[in-house]
Amino acid sequence: MSEEQSNLDEQQVDEKVVPVSEAIRYRKRAQAAEQQAEELTRQVEQLRREHGQLTEQLQSQRHDEELSKRLTAAGVTDVEAGVLLTQKRMGDGGDLDAAIERLRQDKPHLFPSHQREANSAPKKTAGAKERPGTSPTMAQAAQQAAASGRRSDVHEYMRVRRTRVRSM
Questions:
Q1: Count of C-beta atoms within a 10 Å radius of residue 163
Q2: Which of 54, 78, 119, 157 could be disulfide-bonded to 141 (CB atoms 3.0-4.6 Å)?
Q3: Structure pTM?
Q4: pLDDT digits over 7-49, tens only?
Q5: Measured distance CA(11)–CA(78) in Å, rounded
Q6: Is 151 helix (H, G, I), strand (E, B) or coil?
Q7: In sequence order, what DSSP letters do the residues of 92-117 get, joined into one string?
Q8: Can you say whether residue 29 is alpha, beta or left, with left for phi > 0 and alpha for psi between -120 and 50 degrees?
Q9: How far apart are CA 123 and CA 1, in angstroms?
Q10: Distance CA 147, CA 132 (A)
Q11: CB contact at 8 A, 157 and 144
């Protein structure tokens, strides 16, 4: 047994003996691999945080878009103010329809008073009506403005010119 024992001891010694330069090279490779693994771990964590933030932003934008659509369908005249006020009323995860109804009750000025007004275009204001026969022709107004040089005459000429151009 002593021979077998000595053979085993020699084999173990031979297996344990590695040239120093090779051991140093293995150690440097292992350290580089560990550093690379740590760097990749940091990058993965950073990307996960960024992904979470972007997901939150996307959900927020989708929620705001849905809110804007519903407020527009409800007939809100100022959508931006309606969105802000509805978000305030909803808090964290409240019911959207209930918040719009509360907004309608609390801020009726954001909603048109008649349904007809909500569907029609804004009305133009009526201009000053001219009396028949008192309006000078464009040529007369131009001569008067050129002769006098007064602002009121120039304005009158521009007004007559504007009404003639629009009617053509």
A1: 13
A2: 157
A3: 0.46
A4: 656 655 556 677 888 889 999 999 999 999 999 999 999 999 9
A5: 88
A6: helix
A7: SS--HHHHHHHHHHH-GGGS-SSHHH
A8: alpha
A9: 115
A10: 25
A11: yes
